[in-house]
Design goal:
Helices cover 23% and strands 26% of the residues. The chain is of the alpha+beta class. Strand 25 and strand 26 form a beta hairpin. It starts with 8 loop residues before the first strand and ends with a strand. It has 14 helices and 29 strands. The longest helix has 25 residues. Strands 12, 13, 15, 16, 17, 18, 19, 20, 21 and 22 form a ten-stranded mixed beta sheet that branches.
């Protein structure tokens, strides 16, 4: 039961005028956009969440004078302009409904909703827009909300931001299409009721700051665009040749002609099969030297179905692809990695030099087939150590590389001894609990693989076909991570789920002696890099003495900071000592020569601690050892 006081609902009129709804939308636009922004899944990234929140709110007006929305939602009594206003209740419901729809994955089996596509709002070229960064409390709340389902986030926000009682929250969620509002409320109970933080600038998509996109990538794209335009002009001139010039389709064969390479790609007899020991003689240790394994590698009918579905997935096939991964047909004959039965499914794993493709169908038929794509170009031996074989009931099973001599599961948070995983003769592990879909973070399982040289490597499931490789140390010289490197920051891995992540790096970049003899604090930067290059996500985290987990104090996207190219990083946090005094703390990497607070307080070296009135806002900047300037993440 929520702890705030709420007015009782009254019956809403059955009809809401469009003009009435429009007036409510205009008057309460900032609040509605904030609601949409917070309901949207954080995995979209802050820039897209901002644009999508505005787009959904602007499309929240009903199309006609009568609407089914109004009758389902209670209006509220109150003193402000939105309470007791059926027009506001109407547009609020439509905002919640479309924001929940926007968080649903695209499925081939259902017609997609407009809200599931990127917004069509005008964007400023070369700029990313996102709300201003808040304090450590706001970042911690945002991270905790990101672990909830969309319905549970909506329940928490309707309680905290809209001040609705649980009975009214159920009605709104039910009208918005949530299957089990009671379960959503129960899940929302697991988050501390810090409702006052929802009014922070951290969650205000109407008060924005702008940052440039990757300037080097933009320059490369401009060059590529120039070349493409020139090529198009030349082709256009050639296509316009008179007389015996080219036909409208140029040198292409007639539409009914069959491409030999495309036809060969669909033939199971053309699949590349690598021998069991070929990897030992090869200079490469990646997916290209994986042997074909599994008891169904000779099942031509199964392989033919897998290849046909890859090329032409039907409406009943569930297709998924990591961001930046093409989901198209194979360009030519692929390499077979595995074909066999795993749990209650027949699974086929294929590799085309760029992507891993997983086809799965039930043992008792082909209805409900699944097709998954993941980009893996340039994978090395650490990143090509395992592929998801199957997921079921929150558990995961991996197919391991032929050079893997031992597999184990290790809890990064509890730092307990690794538990050995049994593998069958094909190299498929026994199932173990995956953290990919966990709603809480009391443990975080990682896969530990030992190669033939005796090196142990850690990887973790982030909801995709290939686990993310975990590394640690200075960005210029990364090393294999240990459980100790991740024990305080493992929960932050949830922020990298389903983003096409290749590696996640943890770097304890600074230690700081706290004022008043409060001990030694640790500052950690975690950086998740993707297979596609863009979309990296950074978190700066602060771990106070005596605490098991670090707190996220800053985050950023698509920046080279804390990476091998530009390792320098700076972050700050408001901190309260055991004596009750508030301080502004700041810490940078060793590239930072001095840190300055916005009130003029300056400290030599890479750390700063300055007394700060509670609630006071303060910023940080720094000077690098080479004379350059650095600002905080965010």
């Amino acid at each position: 039961m929520s702890s705030h006081v709420q007015s009782s609902p009254q019956d809403a009129p059955g009809i809401v005028d469009v003009e009435q709804a429009e007036a409510a939308l205009v008057e309460h636009y900032p609040r509605l956009v904030r609601l949409a922004y917070l309901v949207l899944p954080p995995s979209l990234g802050r820039n897209r969440r901002v644009l999508t929140a505005h787009s959904l709110t602007q499309r929240a007006l009903p199309r006609s004078r009568t609407s089914e929305d109004e009758a389902a939602v209670p209006a509220q009594r109150g003193k402000d302009g939105r309470q007791g206003n059926p027009g506001y209740a109407c547009v609020r419901l439509r905002v919640v409904r479309t924001a929940l729809e926007a968080g649903l994955p695209l499925r081939w089996t259902a017609l997609p909703k407009r809200s599931q596509f990127p917004p069509l709002l005008l964007q400023v070229r070369g700029l990313r827009l996102f709300p201003r960064s808040g304090g450590a409390d706001e970042l911690a709340l945002d991270q905790r909300l990101s672990t909830l389902s969309g319905a549970a986030r909506a329940a928490y926000l309707l309680r905290g931001l809209e001040r609705l009682e649980d009975g009214d929250v159920r009605k709104v969620l039910d009208a918005a299409g949530v299957d089990d509002p009671g379960a959503a409320l129960a899940e929302a109970d697991g988050v501390e009721a810090r409702y006052e933080l929802l009014a922070s600038p951290e969650f205000d998509p109407c008060s924005l700051q702008a940052r440039p996109t990757d300037l080097m990538r933009r320059r490369q794209h401009m060059k590529a665009a120039g070349v493409a335009v020139a090529a198009a002009l030349v082709c256009g001139a050639l296509l316009g040749l008179p007389g015996d010039g080219w036909a409208p389709d140029g040198a292409a064969a007639p539409p009914y002609a069959k491409n030999p390479a495309g036809q060969a790609a669909l033939h199971p007899g053309k699949l590349t099969l690598i021998g069991a020991t070929e990897w030992k003689r090869s200079a490469r240790t990646d997916f290209s030297v994986w042997p074909a394994r599994g008891e169904l590698t000779d099942d031509k009918a199964l392989l033919r179905r897998a290849l046909a579905v890859w090329a032409r997935p039907g409406e009943s096939v569930q297709v998924s692809a990591t961001p930046g991964t093409a989901a198209g047909a194979p360009p030519g004959p692929a390499q077979l990695l595995f074909a066999g039965e795993v749990d209650s499914a027949r699974v086929v794993l294929l590799y085309d030099g760029l992507r891993i493709v997983r086809y799965a169908e039930p043992k008792d038929g082909t209805s409900g087939a699944v097709l998954d794509f993941a980009r893996v170009d340039g994978a090395d031996s650490a990143e090509a150590g395992a592929v998801i074989a199957n997921r079921t009931d929150g558990n995961v099973r991996y197919l391991t590389a032929p050079w893997v001599k031992g597999a184990a599961v290790r809890d990064l948070i509890k730092r307990s001894a690794a538990t050995t995983l049994k593998r069958d003769k094909s190299g498929v592990t026994e199932p173990f609990a995956s953290p990919a879909q966990a709603s809480s973070c009391t443990s975080w399982n990682a896969l530990q693989l030992r190669d033939n040289s005796g090196t142990d490597r850690l990887a973790t499931d982030l909801g995709e076909l290939v686990p993310a490789h975990l590394t640690a140390g200075r960005p210029q010289a990364p090393r294999e991570a240990t459980a100790a490197d991740w024990s305080a920051t493992a929960c932050s891995l949830s922020a990298a789920r389903s983003n096409g992540v290749r590696t996640v790096h943890a770097w304890a970049y600074a230690r700081q002696a706290l004022p008043e003899g409060n001990g030694l604090a640790q500052w950690v930067c975690t950086r998740a890099d993707t297979w596609r290059g863009g979309g990296s996500r950074l978190l700066a985290q602060f771990r106070a003495p005596g605490t098991a987990a670090a707190s996220v104090v800053a985050k950023a996207e698509d920046t080279p900071a804390c990476g091998g190219r530009e390792p320098a990083v700076l972050a700050g946090v408001r901190w309260k000592s055991r004596g009750g005094t508030w301080y502004l703390l700041g810490a940078g990497s060793k590239e930072v020569a001095s840190v300055t607070a916005s009130d003029g307080t300056k400290a030599p070296g890479n750390t700063l601690a300055a007394p700060l009135g509670r609630g006071a806002q303060a910023g940080l900047s720094g000077r690098l050892t080479d004379g350059g300037k650095i600002s905080t993440l965010g």
